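Incident log, support desk, overnight shift.

02:14 A customer reports that sequence design results differ from what the structure should imply. Their input is reproduced verbatim below. On-call engineer (initials T.W.) acknowledged and began investigating.
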C-alpha cells in the first residue's frame, strides 16, 4: 500500500490526513485516496484531472513526471507526498 501524505499547510485548507491506499500508479493511488477524502480532489487536481500548477507531488522522493495522465508508477510501501509549490521572494 502507498502511504499518502499532505503537508501541514495544505491540511489547514482541506481535510487530508495521511492514509494508506492501494494503487500501482499515481492516478490509482489518488483516486483511492479521494474516495475517502473527496474535498481534497479539487485542491490537488484541476477540472481536467491534472495536478494543479501550484502543487508538487513526490513518489518515493522522486518528483512526479506525468502531471496530466498521472501514470507514474507507485511501488508497494512507497510514500506519495503532496506539497504546495512555493515561488517568489525578495532578493537582496
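02:41 Re-run completed on a clean worker. Output:
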Amino acid at each position: 500500500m502507498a502511504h499518502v501524505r499532505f503537508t501541514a499547510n495544505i491540511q489547514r485548507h482541506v481535510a487530508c490526513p495521511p492514509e494508506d491506499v492501494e494503487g500501482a500508479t499515481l492516478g490509482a493511488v489518488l483516486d483511492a485516496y479521494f474516495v475517502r477524502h473527496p474535498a481534497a480532489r479539487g485542491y490537488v487536481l484541476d477540472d481536467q484531472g491534472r495536478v494543479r500548477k501550484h502543487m508538487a507531488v513526490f513518489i518515493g522522493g522522486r518528483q512526479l513526471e506525468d502531471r496530466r495522465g498521472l501514470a507514474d508508477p507507485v511501488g508497494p510501501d512507497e510514500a506519495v507526498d503532496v506539497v504546495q509549490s512555493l515561488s517568489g521572494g525578495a532578493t537582496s
